[in-house]
């Protein structure tokens, strides 16, 4: 699905090979090695979608600095409720594909990310999931060449309390 997403956006995609449950050390070494290869290919910056978690930003900046690249955070400091509503109003389409059950009900898994969801989670979660409450899969919007079609293929518990919706590709619409 990620390859299809990148193709619809007209973007190249590369994957970093790691063991299924990498240690933090393995993750960091793999990330820095990948970012160093990016620098060798004349890439100068690494962009992240973090909005307000300072410890995560500092961690990412440290890893990126080790590779010789510069980290940028284009959404940093934005109001998450406004960002979420702008995302929807701009015509993007996303599905909730991961839920931390300690923060939100699993019944939201697979639900279309829309104004109803933002209003429903307001008291217990950040509308952008910035604290890891949920993850989304974006499958359509103004910069996609085609909307992606997919179906649920089951669920798995990725971590304690975190359930992931497994997605499988269907034909494009």
Which keywords apply here?
single chain, 173 residues, alpha+beta, putative n-type atp pyrophosphatase, domain 2, 2 domains, 4-stranded antiparallel sheet, two-stranded parallel sheet, 6 strands, 32% helix
Task: Characterise this structure.
With 173 residues, this protein is α+β, with helices and mostly antiparallel strands. The mean pLDDT is 94. 32% of the residues lie in helices and 23% in strands. The chain folds into two domains: 71 residues, no CATH class; 90 residues, putative n-type atp pyrophosphatase, domain 2, CATH 3.90.1490. Helix 3 links the parallel strand 1 and strand 2. The radius of gyration is 17 Å and the shape is globular. The strands form two sheets. The protein has a four-stranded antiparallel β-sheet with strand order 4-3-6-5, with no helix packed on it. The chain has five helices and six strands.
């Amino acid at each position: 699905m990620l390859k299809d997403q990148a193709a619809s956006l007209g973007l190249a995609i590369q994957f970093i090979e790691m063991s299924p449950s990498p240690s933090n050390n393995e993750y960091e070494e793999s990330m820095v090695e990948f970012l160093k290869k990016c620098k060798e290919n004349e890439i100068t910056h690494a962009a992240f979608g973090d909005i307000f978690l300072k410890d995560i930003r500092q961690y990412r900046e440290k890893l990126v600095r080790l590779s010789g690249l510069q980290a940028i955070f284009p959404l940093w400091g934005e109001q998450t409720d406004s960002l979420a509503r702008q995302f929807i109003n701009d015509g993007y389409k996303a599905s909730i594909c991961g839920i931390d059950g300690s923060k939100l009900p699993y019944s939201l898994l697979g639900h279309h990310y829309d104004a109803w969801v933002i209003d429903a989670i307001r008291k217990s979660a950040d509308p952008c999931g910035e604290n890891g409450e949920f993850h989304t899969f974006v499958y359509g919007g103004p910069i996609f060449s085609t909307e992606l079609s997919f179906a649920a293929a089951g669920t798995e518990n990725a971590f304690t309390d975190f359930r992931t919706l497994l997605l499988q590709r269907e034909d494009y619409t």
